[in-house]
Design goal:
2 domains, binds S-adenosylmethionine, about 280 residues, globular, 10 strands, 3-stranded antiparallel β-sheet
Length: about 280
C-alpha cells in the first residue's frame, strides 16, 4: 500500500476498533497516514492488497500469525538503557534499601512492557550494583519477569545481543564493560545479569493471574497509548498483583492521578514513585 492508495474512512474505523480491542492502542482521528506507513511493508510481504482484506484475514484467523504481525507493526517499541535515569536511582537508593529494611526476601519485579529488553536488563544491572554495596542484602535472589505483547520484541529481548549504537543509548562505557561481553562487533548481556531475567508474552489487557504476585512493577511508556478506562483497569489490576506495600513505576509523562487511588505518590530526592496503600 502506498500513501497514494489512501485507506477508506470505513476501513480506518474498522481497523482502529480492531486495534483498540486487541491491544488497547487508541488511534485518534486523522491517523490514516500512520496505518498506511506502518502496514505498507506487511501488506507487501503478505501479498495483501488492502487494509480491508487484511482485517478480514485477521478476523478469520488465517493465516494465524497475521494478528501478531499486525500488532507488532502498530506498537511503538522505542526504549533505551536507564531510560529517564530517575526510576533506577529511586530503585537503588530508596526502594531496594526499604525492602531490605522490611526484611523482604524472594523479591519479584515485573517489567510489564519490556520491548527489546533494555528495561528489564537495566533493572537487573541496578540490582547488581545495589548488591555490591549491600552484600548482606536479602534481595540476592531477586527475579525480574519481563513481558510484552510483541513477539518480535520478545525474541530480540531474549537474544540479549545489541550493537554499539543501541548500547550508546543510555549505557556508559563503564557499565558496558562491566555488564556485557563482546561477540564480534556486538555485545551480549553478561550471564549474571541475564540469569535473573525471564521473558513471557503478556497482553496488558488480559488477566495477570498466571504471573503471580510482585513486589515492584515497572509499567513505563505504554499507558500513554491507552484510553482512560483501560488505564484505570490496568492500574487497579496491577495493584491487585502487588504484595502489600509494593511499588509501581510509571513513565516520565504518565501519572496515576485520576485513574486509581490504590497507590500513594512518594516524592523522594531521587524522583517520584508509587507505593500500594496499606
Ligand atoms: C514505548 S515501549 C516502552 C518500553 C519500556 N517500558 C520503556 O519505557 O522504555 C512500549 C511497549 O509496550 C508494548 N505494548 C503495547 N501494547 C501492549 C499491550 N496491550 N500489552 C503489553 N505490551 C504492550 C509494545 O509492544 C512496546 O514494546
Amino acid at each position: 500500500m502506498t500513501a497514494a492508495q489512501a485507506i477508506t474512512h470505513d476501513d480506518y474505523v474498522r481497523f482502529r476498533t480492531f486495534l483498540e480491542k486487541a491491544c488497547g492502542i487508541v488511534l485518534g482521528d486523522g491517523k490514516e497516514y500512520l496505518i498506511v506507513s506502518r502496514l505498507a511493508k506487511l501488506l507487501r510481504d503478505e501479498d495483501i492488497s488492502s487494509v480491508a482484506e487484511l482485517l478480514t484475514a485477521v478476523e478469520r484467523g488465517h493465516p494465524r500469525h497475521l494478528r501478531d504481525v499486525v500488532i507488532d507493526a502498530m506498537t511503538t517499541n522505542e526504549t533505551s538503557w536507564f531510560r529517564d535515569r530517575s526510576p533506577f536511582e529511586v530503585l537503588e537508593n530508596e526502594v531496594l534499601p526499604e525492602m531490605d529494611a522490611n526484611g523482604i526476601r524472594q523479591c519479584r519485579i515485573w517489567s510489564s512492557a519490556c520491548s527489546s529488553g533494555q528495561e528489564p536488563y537495566t533493572i537487573s544491572i541496578t540490582l547488581s550494583e545495589y548488591l555490591r554495596s549491600a552484600p548482606t542484602s536479602g534481595l540476592a535472589n531477586a527475579q525480574v519477569i519481563a513481558t510484552d505483547i510483541s513477539t518480535s520484541m520478545l525474541v530480540l529481548a531474549k537474544q540479549a545481543e545489541y550493537d554499539n549504537a543501541i548500547l550508546g543509548r543510555g549505557l556508559s562505557e563503564q557499565r558496558k564493560k562491566a555488564f556485557f561481553k563482546p561477540v564480534g562487533d556486538r555485545w551480549i548481556v553478561a550471564d549474571d545479569i541475564r540469569r535473573r531475567v525471564s521473558f513471557k508474552e503478556q497482553n496488558l489487557l488480559l488477566s495477570y493471574a498466571a504471573l503471580g504476585k510482585f513486589d515492584i512493577i515497572f509499567c513505563r511508556n505504554v499507558l500513554i497509548y491507552f484510553s482512560s478506562e483501560r488505564k484505570t483497569d490496568i492500574l487497579n489490576r496491577m495493584a491487585a498483583a502487588l504484595n502489600p506495600g509494593g511499588y509501581l513505576f510509571l513513565g516520565a509523562s504518565e501519572t496515576i492521578t485520576g485513574y486509581s487511588d490504590a497507590f500513594e505518590m512518594v516524592r523522594s530526592p531521587h524522583g517520584v514513585f508509587y507505593r500500594l496503600k496499606r
